[in-house]
């Protein structure tokens, strides 16, 4: 068995598609009317569809998981993030962990937690 995809819930799939393309270079592999698979295995699911499956409310910024990306030039990434998405909500701005890795954590447009760090 292998893990195939990671699914996140989004309110506006077109805005989220643009966000993940702009910042991480992810492209659409399959667009299936409210369920979109991007490169690297990220799946965007429209909130209304997800709610109908679960029958429960969606809790943004629940801080129970994160999407993790690595970037060599993290300073340039942060500049791009602030230029393209200035209202981004940070969990922590660019910092250096005790083991020397530089990281930044923020929420996407729908409150999904993202971490970008330099490769270890």
Automatic annotation (TrEMBL):
Residues 2-119 form the VOC domain. Pfam families: Glyoxalase_2. Signal peptide: none annotated. It comes from the Bacteria. PROSITE patterns: VOC (PS51819). This is VOC family protein. The lineage of its organism: Bacteria, Bacillati, Bacillota, Clostridia, Lachnospirales.
